[in-house]
Amino acid sequence: MRKFSIFLFFIYLSTINVSIAQNSNFTNLFNGKDLKGWVQYNGKAKYTVENGEIVGRTVANEPNSFLSTEKLYGDFILELDLKVDVNMNSGIQFRSELNDENDKCYVTDKVTPKRVHGYQMEIDPSSRAWSGGVYDESRRGWLYPLEYNVEAKKAFKNNAWNHYKIEAIGNSIRTWINGIPCAHVIDDMTPKGFISLQVHQIHDPKEIGQEVRWKNIKIQTTQLKPAPPENLFVVNLIPNTVSPEEAKTGVRLLWDGKTFKGWRSAYKTSFPTDGSWYIENGTLNVRGSNGAESRNGGDILTEDEFGAFDLQFEFKITDTANSGVKYFVTESEKNQGSAIGLEYQILDDDKHPDAKLGSIGNRTMASLYDLIPALRIGQQRREKFPVGEWNRGRIVVFPDGKVEHWINGWKVIEYQRGTQYFYALVARSKYANWPNFGMAEKGHILLQEHGTNVSYRSIKIKPLH
Q1: For position 16, what pLDDT does the model report?
Q2: CA gyration radius, the chain
Q3: Mean per-residue pLDDT over the chain, rounded
Q4: 271: Cβ–Cβ under 8 A, 6 or more apart, which residues?
């Protein structure tokens, strides 16, 4: 018994030593006494040190404020504790930079021409509950809203201290709140930058003096070891790639970014050879002509068929463009124009006349074409990007027949195949005379050729079971 007790004692000492070794890899970013090593950018919110905490308070008539590290960080693991007033929005910037006044890639304004831009882990105590999501400040907007991971909305606790963790290793960015995984982004836009504590601008005088508090701010930059993989949806922003994390969940490319392998013309056995479809700089493009539907090379579709799946794709439209991504295409109808299938509409809503046809907007961007209009979030929320910018589309078909359309992180369509409501929509649409429309057990994925210039990339799919 005595020997066994000694054995347990040595195990205990070993555990303590391992813990000490792990903790020794972290460096404090805040000394608990003053703001040495930090500099403030943009707005003039008040930052003070009180009781070993950094306290940020809102002020009137100022843009977003950022208390930022003087030092830049590339790969790291950052941990800290924070507490925020329930009506206040905030965030933690990382791998962030200051705008170049002449760089038009970023959102600039006259008030803050040297505006902070870069990745941000969200602090959102509102009912939206997107704390832990990843936002691209003053650049691309939301990269990982928590609609991608609804369970993580429960992680943040209002009126309490929350433990935040950011793991940025290589192109992989992951976040946790109170030990719960929130977001996973793969991106290579900014490999290095400063870390900032944000105090958001306010518009209501009643919000003056709201507080956000930070403490126990520490960072690890050496001997980094990624946390075990989580079964999260991954937003991969590196074109035409599947990350190891995605591959483990069954995601694969539908288009390899280099060849036409795996695709063919609708109703034919080979790919169109007239040049209407072409590959350029890792993009799959349809060449515009006179805007006629499927009169050139025609639609192209996957050689494989799919039932339940999670399909992702990026697309870029040109002025007056019209195209679409169709699913459950069977080629059984021998249509004179485009092959028939359920369609995720891709359109220049502002200039193409089709946007005003159909019923209540059911032919606009991301809609279920001629059946259900996409939810319009509002341009300020950027659910659709302007002509010439890449949009992220997503179609999810669940095994039970539920279907979702997404665009740039926003779910804008949800419906159930095979319901009376679905059949009623079909009955009043242009598909009313097609038997069993949209109800095939499986079908091809199709990209529509409509005689206008549209580009695609990062087309990938995950079968669902």
Answers
A1: 39
A2: 25
A3: 90
A4: 260, 263, 264, 265, 277, 300
**CATH C-level class of 239-463:** mainly beta
Structure tokens at 54: 């950094």
Q: How many CB atoms lie within 10 A of CB 193?
A: 22
What mean pLDDT do residues 130-154 have?
Answer: 95
- At position 324, the amino acid (one-letter code) is G
How far is it, in rounded angstroms, from Cα 461 to Cα 310?
A: 6
Cα 315 versus chain centre, distance: 14
Instruction: Assess whether the region 24-220 and the region 239-463 belong to the same CATH fold.
Output: yes
Q: 17-21, 164-168, 278-282, 437-441: lowest mean pLDDT where?
A: 17-21
Chain centre to alpha carbon of residue 77: 21
Across 265-282, average pLDDT: 93
Q: What average pLDDT does the segment 214-218 reach?
A: 98
Whether CATH 3.20.20.30 fits 24-220 = no
Q: End-to-end distance of the chain based on CA atoms, in angstroms?
A: 53
- The reported pLDDT for the residue numbered 121 is 98
- Convert 104-114 to b/e letters by CB count within 10 Å (16 or more is b): eebebeeebee
Domain boundaries, the chain: 24-220, 239-463
Range 230-246 burial, b when 16+ CB lie within 10 A, else e: eebbbbbbeebebeebb
- Residue 441 CB burial class (10 angstroms; 0-12, 13-18, ≥19): exposed
> How confident is the model over 414-431, as pLDDT tens digits?
999 999 999 999 999 999
Name the one residue in this structure whose structure tokens are 């090379």: 297
3-state helix, strand, coil in the chain (%, to 5): 10, 40, 50
Q: For residue 372, give Cα distances in angstroms to 355, 404, 425.
A: 13, 11, 8
Residue 335 DSSP class: -
